[in-house]
Design a protein that fits this description.
alpha+beta
Length: about 190
């Protein structure tokens, strides 16, 4: 047995390319919006989020079928370098919320299917009195937060300029260092 501490960015690239996949007997991804936000907050606070267990693939004695993590564009036919045996729910949530450019297909706490993008509210993150619930928010795939049955747009995040004007950092670019540099430049604009 060995430990293999890896950067989250490296692991997400492996999931994206299909180098890290799931054995096909793993159950489907089931985390709801609230659990995803809580996991993101744990990562932001540098809290332990648990270990993941991997099995090196390609050994003659390993005959598991494999499948990409939900949301990964990797071809199901691509042979992985390793299989994720434990940590699927956390890794799938992190991949979809922090790496994939697509909205996260998740559900409410009542089980209703929703599509979400996750943002860091920078003003709230810097406010020591702010509640954690206000720091990481999920936004519909339309990138608009509305009220009055959709008639009133409370926050419009449909362009990068609008995101940064409102100090809302899109978390799906946080592991893309080119995107993070763009964000830094835009946040420094007058």
């Amino acid at each position: 047995m060995k430990t293999n501490d890896r950067q989250l960015t490296e692991l997400m690239k492996e999931v994206d390319s299909g180098a890290a996949q799931l054995p096909d007997f793993q159950r489907g991804w089931v985390w709801d919006d609230g659990r995803i936000r809580a996991l993101i907050l744990s990562v932001i606070h540098n809290s332990p989020v648990g270990a993941a267990m991997f099995l090196e693939y390609g050994n003659e004695s390993i005959h598991f079928k494999h499948k990409p993590i939900e949301g990964s564009p990797a071809s199901p036919g691509k042979e992985p370098d390793e299989l994720i045996l434990d940590g699927q729910q956390r890794l799938t949530s992190l991949y979809n919320a922090l790496y994939s450019r697509n909205p996260v297909h998740t559900r409410t706490d009542k089980g209703k299917g929703i599509e979400r993008l996750y943002y860091l509210d920078i003003a709230k993150a810097l406010d020591p009195k702010a509640d954690d619930e206000e720091v990481v928010i999920s936004v519909p795939a339309t990138r608009q937060i509305t009220s009055n049955f959709g008639r009133t747009v409370e926050k419009d995040l449909t362009t990068r300029e609008k995101e940064f004007e409102l100090k809302m950092f899109p978390l799906n670019i946080i592991l893309d260092f080119g995107g993070a540099e763009l964000a830094e430049r835009l946040l420094c604009l007058p």
